[in-house]
Amino acid sequence: MAHLNKSEAFRQGALIFVFLAVLTALEFFVAIAIGSVVLLVTIALVKFGLVLHYYMHIYKLNATEDPDIDQHSYAYKLTTSRLGLWLFLLSDSFVFGGLAVSRFYLLGLTRPPLNQILGLVVTSVLLLSSFFMNRAEVSMEHGDRKNFILFTSLTLVLGLAFVAGVLGVEWPSAMAEGVTPSTNAAGAIFFMMTGMHAFHVITGLIFLGVIIRNGSRGLYSPEKHWGVEAATVYWHFIDVVWIFFYPALYLIGKIF
Amino acid sequence: MKKFFSSALWHGFLWQAIGWTLGASFLTLIRVLMGLNPFATFGFTEPAWVFGGLVGALSFLGGSGVVSDWFKWAKGEETPEHHQDPDGWEKFINISLDHKVIGVQYTLSALLLLVIGGIFSLIFRTELAQHGLQFLSLQWYNTLMSLHGMVMIIGILLGIAGVINYILPLLIGAQDMAFPRLNAFSYWLAPPAAILLLSSMALGGFDTGWTGYPPLSARTPVGMQMFFLGVIVAGWSSVLGALNTIATVIRMRAKGMTAFRLPIFVWAAIATSIIAMTATQLIGLSFQMVMFQRLFGMGFFDPAKGGDPILFQHLFWFYSHPAVYVFILPGLGIISELLPVFVRKPLFGYRWIAMSSLGIALVGFLVWAHHMYTSGMNEYLRVPFMYSTLLVAVPTGVKFFSWVATIWRGKVTGPYPTAFLFVLGGIVVFLMGGLSGPPNATVATDLHLQDTYWIVGHFHDTLFGGYLLPFFAAIYFWFPKATGRRMNEALGRLHFWLMTPSFIVLTLLMMRIGLLGMRRRIADYDASLGFDPYHLVMTITAFVIAFSVLIFFINFFRSMKNGEPATGNLWNSRSPEWQVSSPMPVHNYDQPFEVVGEPYDYGLADSVYVKFANKKTGGRN
Amino acid sequence: MRHFVIVGVLVILVAALTNVGLNYIHLMPVEASAQSIPVDWLWNLDIEVISFLLALIIVPIAYSLVVFRRKKGDTTDAEHIEGNTPLEITWTIIPLFVVLIFAYLGAYTLGEIRVVDPSAAEIKVKAIQWAWSFQYPEGFISKELHLPVNKQVVLKMESGDVIHSFWVPEFRIKQDVLPGRVTDYRITPILVGNYMVRCAELCGTSHAYMEAPVVVSSQADYDAWVASQEAIAAVAAQTPEGRGEQLANASGCRGCHTIDGSKLVGPTWQGLFGSQVSLSDGTTVTADDAYITESIAKPSAKIVKGFETTTAMPKFDLTDAQIKDLVAYIATLK
């Protein structure tokens, strides 16, 4: 992957976001007009692939390394830490995988009655936050501390909005509709899935707070910003989970 | 005494108690403000106990100091690369980043849990020696039996972590694990987990067995929640330790250590860690879902709410079956690792043995529902699982045949060292366990065998043969490397010859009465079944086994101070760790080594496995 | 080469001896169901293979350790044999085939076990903590399972609370019983006799004691039993205490409450009516109509001293009339 300059990188990040937004609109359309689970899965996989490659930079795991590299050097430890982070995300995916399996086992191809507009709004907020997270990371990689702080803060604000949207608006709204944790299996799995995801978002927010604080104290540089990379990849991971959870909870079957 | 009260262990426990109390009180306050009852049968209400338990576990970690470096990093502070450990025994109850110290911590904790779990079994085996209830109530029986299972399982996981932690970096020429602080953290999750688990006895116990099936687990006393919490905390130890192992093998190998020049134990460790790092999350999830069903009425497994108890079983066994391969792959790896050293011959079919560990791990993910043949799940699903389960026999068979071929025409120097005895014992007992597997894999026969003592015999054989006996072999083998002294061979032989035949008799009798109608997990059985003599003999063998363990401990602790000195290549092994003196230096290898040959080329003149930068020797002495 | 021959002979010998020995000690209970026959057939095949494999692994190891033991004064290493690819392929492929064959045989025997007789009578089985009850098509409920020999019967089983499991060792087949759904247990008894069904899935405190008699009799004896049960039910239906007794049997009360004075999970009913009862809160009450009625309708209202930590009594779905009948029945137990 040829190294891009800052404005090229910004542009690429924006382009990917546009694709993601279009795909989200597409899956919403599929859910209104077609109701095909296969199509929804395909769209989700494409979004997943885009984020995995362009936002999370999974290809870095395959980067070539000098065979005689000093194993005590920062560069070596960085690669090792990166591996550790991805292994952790692999492990964590099994929790969400288990929840998804449970959802389909219990509810089959039915879905709980949820507010579609609300679902689309919180999804868009989270997607937008990933856009800004990418921008923040690009800024850091090019030594633009001011924009790094700005975009990370925007990510944090949007993340907070997501949590507020889910816990503060979606949950009460669902309960008003009779979908409560204790009514039935549909309610139980809805709250467990959104709750576990929100828990991860909250931990992600803490992580963002840490890198904003450390970043504003000048502790990161383009060469050394592992904390930023880790927070970024983790944040996008949370977005990836929602890429699958959103259609699983809101879009199965025909809506409207 | 003063050393104990300034230790991380003590501080951890203290803060766990404080955190538990504060957490439970805080939740009780919330309940009062919400107009709910503040107290219940066991003092605090169930939600308060659960929340308190969680806060307590987190407080242990904070109070012990194991997370302090990470907090410093979050604040942007630097921390020293290496910690200096104190010289004496107190280093084992404090935070150390040295994999060797952590390995010993894990191993000692494992032995402690094995003793606790063993004592539980002695208690209920005494009750079972005769029909009728002599001294245990039904609840206590169920609780002790259930705890025996889980305490032993966690003991196994800690023992595996102990062996892997101690020897894996040594085998691959690393100075330490890839993530030393994560390594320490993984260990220090174990003490609070054990406390949570054992606290269940004070909170009404639980009567579901270690499998915790709802609906029963949704309606047992509060002790059930402590069980769930304890397992979840211990599960994280397993996940993070496995992550560390994988990263270490990928990133920290010596030069020239290509895939098929890895010591075979490393292959076993990789296969084990792949499973432990991923599947463990599912037992956590399944337990979390029951916890939430109890706390919030979330009806995942409640048919009255559209839930399904069988979903729990799928989620649970998706981990718990691969888990048994986590339990045995390291032990089988130890057998493969040690055999060549004792028989002075290469490991026969090394590559196939390496692949068979991966094969078992991968196929092991596809067999879980063989625990559910009678569960009421979709009937036709049983057949594919029967096929996949029987398939695991193929890579397992590869290991057995390879071991036979390795031993064939080997030259073992008599009298057999204790470590070698335990390796042979492991092979025989694991063989018994493995052979009693296919009837369980086959649906038709399993309908008779499921939930009987046949199954109990099967898994005790596989676990003892696949884990415990090799674990003892590893201890007897590497004890000199860690301490510079040998364990006493006469006592070691006594340990082996008391333990192994007794265990074989125990499990054969278990299988016998299981076939004739002895169900598992029952506190009492009908006199008319005629099982009394069997149970009496089984109880006696249990005590003989316990006595042999006592002998082991006497040997273990005495040899640390008074064992025969053994500072060189005691076993004449080609493996790198034996090319340096014992006890192992703090930073392992002063000079890095390069792999220039095959690990098991015993019998090949002038062949060398590893070459140290400044040393001439690296193979045979 | 001769070593291989000797080992080969020893393996066959040890395998045969093991197999004979295992058969001699009669590993399995008597075959009392049609379904047990294919199960035991496959089991015996398994035992043969197990005997062979046990010998195949242990004999060469023992032989080698003895025959090739290190000679005195020999300090050399053994022969440098790393492997033998054709051999390794063989010992992967042959077991693979054996495994596939046994999987196929397993599927085949499973089919044999599940053969359906469309004229099979249906008996409803209710499992609750910690008792079985059997509802016959004729309408009566029994605490014992009676079956006619040589006729297929399908038990339709459901649990009232947690997972239980129905197992008669002599029948071989086992099937879990779940709440919220019905599982089938299809069996054709072939041997007249008295057996026991014992719960085979840990279901709580008294799991060990959750059992019921299973009586397989000739058609004539079976018909006579059915007739007598119908008569008993008819008589019982006419008095409150009779109905109460039937209800107590059907609802599984006897899983926790004995009628002979012995202590189980709950207090005994013998002599209960009219007695003085000490409660957990320190007070004493008389076990009159009102008390017993409340104890059934609202089980947690009053807890008897000594029963605080046992499993709580669940609330049963009973009408007021049914509760009155139960009280009447309990009053008769002296």
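qc> Residues 6-251 of chain A form a domain with the Four Helix Bundle (Hemerythrin (Met), subunit A) fold (CATH 1.20.120.80).
qc> done
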